[in-house]
Amino acid sequence: MSYEIPDFLLAAPEIFMLTMVSAILVVDLFLPDRRRVWTYILTQITLIATAGIILVAGGEDVAYTFNGMFVGDPMSDVLKIAVCLTVAVMLAYSRSYASFRGIYRGEFFVLSLFSTLGMMVMISANHFLVLYLGLELMSLSLYAMVALPRDSGISTEAAMKYFVLGALASGMLLYGLSMIYGATGSLEVTEVAQRIADGDAIPTILIFGLVFVVAGIGFKLGAVPFHMWVPDVYHGAPTAVTLLIGTAPKLASFAFIMRLLVQALGIQQLLVEWQQMLVLLAVASLAIGNITAIAQTNLKRMLAYSTISHMGFLLLGILSGTIEGFGAAMFYSIVYVLTALGTFGMILLLSRQGFEAENLEDFRGLNQRNPWYAFVMLLLMFSMAGIPPTMGFWAKLFVLQAVLSAGYIWLAVVAVMFSLVGAFYYLRVVKLMYFDAPTDAHPIEPYADVRVLMSVNGLAVIVLGLTPGALLAVCQRAIQLSL
Amino acid sequence: MTGPALLSTVIWLPILAGIAVLFTGSDRNANLARWLALAGALAGFLVALPLYANFDAAAHGMQFVEMTPWIEAYNINYHLGIDGISLLLILMNTFTTVLVVLAGWRVIDSRVGQYMAAFLVLSGMMNGVFCAMDAALFYVFFEATLIPMFIVIGVWGGPNRVYAALKFFLYTLLGSLLTLVAFIYLYTASGASFALLDYYRLQIPLSAQILLFIAFFAAFAVKVPMFPVHTWLPDAHVEAPTGGSVVLAAVMLKLGAYGFIRLSLPILPDASHVLAPVVIGLSLAAVVYIGLVALVQTDMKKLIAYSSISHMGFVTLGVFLFNTLGMQGAVIQMVSHGFVSGALFLCVGVLYDRMHSRLISDYGGVVNKMPVFAAFFMLFAMANSGLPGTSGFVGEFLVVMGAMQLNFWYAAAAGTTLLFGAAYTLWMYKRVVFGAVANSHVEALSDIGARESLVLALAAVAVLGMGLYPQAFASVLHISVGDVLALAMKSKL
């Protein structure tokens, strides 16, 4: 085999980011604490510049490099840009929070960037090992971030749980992947699909492997019955880290599912197999997520269960097995991330030195303390609940359309019924903000950039709700060109 | 077609005005918020008038049509158009908004901007429902109306407002979610179209029609509300502030009935025929049973709420009679009930603002202290009991005649409302207004001022105008009702 010089350009964003992270790691060592803001600024520049590079370098075609291990396609471009921007917004939201929680250190930024890099690798992987590499890079950075407040018992416990269950999930996934390797003789996504299509694979082993892969995906996504870690980690992690865990990795997970299930194992017979598994995961997630969320008094835990139910909805889009459905699911994941960013961002915004606004009670009377933030939160909650004219409605509508056109009428009815249950606890937040009197009179004084970002975030929910066409078209087109 | 985008103006002007009012900020600028809201509401009403002036009562189909692609991937269009039925409801809606803004002028003293903004936005959204010719657009407006009403009930409502607001929201959401599934089914069945006009032409087998009918029914019956899914309404009415009750009774309930006329009948004619006896039965149950329930209420707002349900029973009855008289009567009844029930809630609001009680037993002899008010209240009470010469009479009379064409017993049962309606309304009126001054609180009452007189006078003009010259309203209806019935009579099997 002759050595071929790989097309490095395709991986330019990842290479750029890696270089920058290494540089930031070194630069930060020489910065005193009061100059820490430079680390922040460099990190932001890295993220924005990476998004810029992807935007410029991205094309309409599907290209492979590194011997077919790495792929660049429109889907990966869109998702990677979304990931970079999400992390950038997350860092902006968490700046003041991180400093009074004592995690405003170099590690916080470097680990964020490393996990971002992991997500980007995951999104662009065309090879099971690269996929795994990206997944682990992302996960290990996140485990460490959860444990950043090392004196906090609850954070350490969460990190431990996250790590142990995450490792278990990785084990399952690897086991499944090894089965598929055994059945097809290849680890490359496109190659595996080809071998299965040619009938060269051993069906029994393949399906055995598939089960483990789906279980691994379930763990990473936080779908029922593999959801146990989600509430504890969301609750235990410092809110800034919860914000990170709750947003960008969902986009990476979506790509992960697309590469594994759709691109590698998406051939007709297998599709039916994993469709059935995903139906179970989706319905269980919708049910447990929405019903358990009602009983929560801690907003972070409530949002954790709400995430579980949203992941159920995301799975619905994927299991429809049509291009339209995948596009709808991609739209759903981006919409969800945008909404979750704002929601967790609001917790960060209301927190201050020595006080975390993580209980539902802390939102009491927000409308009287600050009507604008209350209104933004109202929009976010209605978007989560899927009430028009917010964008959350369209996300649900498009997924439901895909589910119905795949012939699962009962599934659509189940999904909307659980949305009704879901509406209750989102409405409760609105109720606390608007109908109750405040118990906390501290002024809310975020930094100017956070103020602007939060307003943009809130308005995006409604503006995209009135004009969802453009973003949807981007998602649909990306999927169409990539598959 | 006249003027550019008249319907869009009718929808978006109040919404933009509402947003502007929202930006007046805290209660320091309360007066600015009030005047701005009044200007917005008046402008909203004034831009709706050219619709009536330019409406061609002799033309079939939709008028003032606007059509722009909205979400191309799913073939969703921003498609608006109205017929005579929508026209009347839009006029009634924009008119009611003016009343509500005036009625809340002094009474609402906290977060005035938000209160006024909620009603303006709500008014625009409901106009949107009446104009939408695209199922997705219809659904967006239909659902979105829940948000401002939820806030209105929950923030400015009575002691049990949280319960009422949540019940209102979740109850109505339950119904509409099933409608959403029905819409998506129709989208798939029609080959990727959300256009209502395509659905009108779509052939659907009876079994599917019946399921779709049930899905639509879940949304619209809850909204109307029909017996036995009416239980959210008394709670919502009792807890809502006066303005909320007025809009709820006058306009929001009509969204349900409008849905039956615009969606259920033309899209699912066969299922509508098959299930008509059930709907008629439920409507008659509402008319008779709920009428009796209203009789025993001790709370004025609850009494009017039950009276609303009973009157709305007339509307659904008229719609499902499948004859011109019935349908025309139903639409006129919708508009008339909007004015009458709205006015009655305004009257109760006037009393509540002074006494902070809605219990009939706390009153008595109000006429001695508030003669002007008593006169207005009398008029609306009479209209509610269907006195000839008021708007209440026209609709009920037409529906009873329509029912008579179909079946004597339907008409007989429906006719009892003239008895019960008069009984519960006038008995309440007698206990509250007549007699000797009941207690020191009543003794201390002062008659209505200029602003309240203006509000009630406006409502009175509408009630009397419609009763004395129904032709102005009926003339625009004739062709439209015929169109709907033609679609409803054409089998799709």
Radius of gyration of chain A: 21 Å
Stretches of chain A where pLDDT is under 50 for at least 5 consecutive residues are none
Residues in helix, % of chain B = over 70%
Biggest sheet character of chain B: 2 strands, antiparallel
Query: What is the succession of H and E elements of chain B?
Result: HHEEHHHHHHHHHHHHHHHHHHH
Give, in order, the helices and strands of chain A: HHEEHHHHHHHHHHHHHHHHHH
Strand order in space, largest sheet of chain B? 1-2
Task: Identify the most extensive interface between protein chains.
Answer: A-B, 34 and 37 residues
Structural class of chain A: mainly alpha
The pLDDT mean of chain B sits at 88
Category by helix and strand content of chain B: mainly alpha
Query: Strand sequence of the main sheet of chain A, in spatial order?
Result: 1-2
Question: Uncertain segments of chain B of ≥5 residues (pLDDT<50)?
Answer: none
Number of strands of chain B: 2
Count up the helices of chain A: 20
